[in-house]
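As a representative case, the lines below give one protein's residues and fold tokens.
***
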Amino acid sequence: MKAWRIEDEGGIDALNLADIGIGEPGPGEVRFRVKASSVNRRDFNTVRAPGERNTPLPRIPNSDAAGEVVAVGDGVTEFGPGDRVASCFFKRWEGGRMRAPIMASALGGAEEGMLSEEAILPQTALVAIPEHLTWEEAGTLTCAGVTAWNALVAQGCLKAGDTVLVMGTGGVSIFALQFAKMMGARVIVTSKSDEKLERARGLGADETVNYADTPDWDEAVMELTGGQGVDHVVEVGGPGTLQKSINATGFGGHIGMIGLLSLGEVNVVPLLRKSVRLSGIYVGSREMFRDMNAAIGASRMRPVIDRVFGFDDARSAYHALGSDAHFGKIVISLG
């Protein structure tokens, strides 16, 4: 079978489409044909500079995959041939709190990734796909979807009537917007693009702020909330934006720290004075994935896809993500 592999420090254009063997599933394992795999910022960074992330080489990239089961090993009881499944980001995180061994089981990093025609995973590292989703839609759930769900629901305890601040319009942010609206929350979205903000309104955003036109966007958010601040922030910027996120958060609010896109210094005094909870979010567990899929299935929600690339054109998908022009997810389809 064919798989894209990172073989050196040459970056995106050095990705190699190689012929590799896969074997048969062992006890408790499932072999599935990959139908779609989406690209995340983490995947882009791994392909661009694997040495910076201590990625073993060669390595198949990407954590996300949706596919069809073709064979199962002894003892597999949850899945059978023909079932539609998606990979979990961590090979060994079924539930409970994060632990060190879990961190060493991330697909497309410490473990082989999913950008291949077929893959084998333990049945405990797979979940069933909501039946109404296409392969491409289901291929977006593993990382961005579960990350947003963990930040807002598992860690944030989101409830109807809360106010959520969503930063940007990438994969995690758009999932967060959709989940927040699904659960009856008010959503404020920031972006430097008026066109993207208009699209966010089309998905239900209640208020928008162009941070290029309004550099003090934290003050704008406070005005939009009548000086109360938001209940939740989906923080994807990093230290460079965290101070403003803290400023924009109300007393007892929650910030889900996800991205590291910018540098800066942070004064933690307002964090303490307002009793704001700051949670580091690194995707989530299989249990969270299942809960998220139940909500997606019940609401018939559909992930937002910006562009779809063919398997042979996988390099272009990474270049597209690097341009930062996307709205929602970029997907590689294997047909």
